[in-house]
Amino acid sequence: MEINRIYNEDCLEGIKQIASASIDAIITDPPYFVGMTHNGKKGDYNDLIIMKPFFDSLFCEFARVIKENGKVYIFCDWRTYAFYYPLLLKHINVRNMLVWDKTNGPGSSYAFTHELILFASKGVPCMKGSNIFRLPGFAGGAKKTNGEMVHPTQKPVEVIEKLITDSTQEGDLVLDCFMGSGTTAVASKKLNRNFIGFEIQEKYIAISESRLKQV
User: Fold this and answer.
1) Which positions, given as ranges, span the membrane (predicted)?
2) d(CA 145, CA 118)
3) Number of structural domains, the chain?
4) Which pLDDT band holds residue 139 (cuts at 50, 70, 90)?
């Protein structure tokens, strides 16, 4: 599979084309529902149960494509952690939970000022530093890049750069199965890493390619 490219296809089909033990790090932020519902309502967390076979198969592929010393980072929150954790643990060793302190956030029942990141690996990693880190997040609503709204769950480049720097070397290969607006690709290119990404919505592929041209 060609590297430094974002493929417009379902990630579960795409990842099957990646060679075994070829990926140094997987950094991804799965959508909560992947377009499926259990009761016709948009945005119901009960819909996660419908996606259990999908994520079980995807995490099995994570274990296949990751190198022996490779790292896996999966963004989640207090509602999705309990869903992802046992599925990931079936296939690869979950080592820790990182806490990203965003310093700001929306919410009326206390503000949502942090996100969780499941950290897993095949080998036994030697990671320095705290599992809690502070970097400013976007302030509510759809996030912006160069003044334009691009993706509702976009992460700041600096957050992805931290994870890439912590877990890879220059020339390593990073995979993002839910590339969105291309932040993982942008961070990888800035840090002289290679990347492979999958994104099912064409409009975000175009945004990603535009962002990459500016790096």
Assistant:
1) none
2) 26
3) 1
4) low
